[in-house]
Prior knowledge:
Blueprint: E1 2-8, H1 14-23, E2 28-30, H2 31-41, H3 43-53, E3 58-59, E4 62-63, H4 65-72, H5 76-99, E5 106-110, H6 114-117, E6 125-130, H7 133-144, H8 148-156, H9 161-167, E7 170-173, H10 180-197
Parallel strand pairs: 1-5, 1-6, 2-5, 6-7
Antiparallel strand pairs: 3-4
Helix pairs in contact: 2-3, 2-5, 3-5
Amino acid sequence: MLKVGITGGIGSGKSYVCKVFRMIGVPVFHADKVAQDLLDTHPSLKHTMQDLFGANIYVNDRLNRKKVAEIVFQDKTILEKLNQVVHPLVLESFNNWTKNISGHPYVLKEAAIIFESGAEQFLDAVINITAPRELRIKRVMKRDKVLRNHVIARMENQLPEEDKLKRADYVIYNDEHSLILPQIINIHNKLQYMAKRI
């Protein structure tokens, strides 16, 4: 069974594309959701977060994500420290999850920062979802009800789009002009063929 990453910059439409993959029967592991759950529940991780961000970073046993975001978007060294403790635990969860799945040629691991975190080295292929920058900004402003400069600040913490496109094995264009389903089916067929050959 192949392990395939699926990523894309903020506002590229990862959730929608993953939903379509699930509809055609592909299991999807949502790494970012798992990371959020671990940050709220994993004892040693909670301790590390309190060391990094202060004892009051948890409110009613839940991480104050807004406060964390404000800090890490200003300080990349703290973001790196955060990633160093979270990503190994997410990888462990992903590997445990894949052990319980059979009968599928491949599974998808959906994550916002596959290339940035080095997760690609544990995957057989990576799909990158892309969309024009302005369209992505508008989508996020509408979805999160945030200002344009806030979206741009978040974008600047992610790998540039050109780099993702160079490193991806497959690309899905979610630009509101290209049809999504034929692109997904084409990649799905290629991955099934690749899985058979291994």
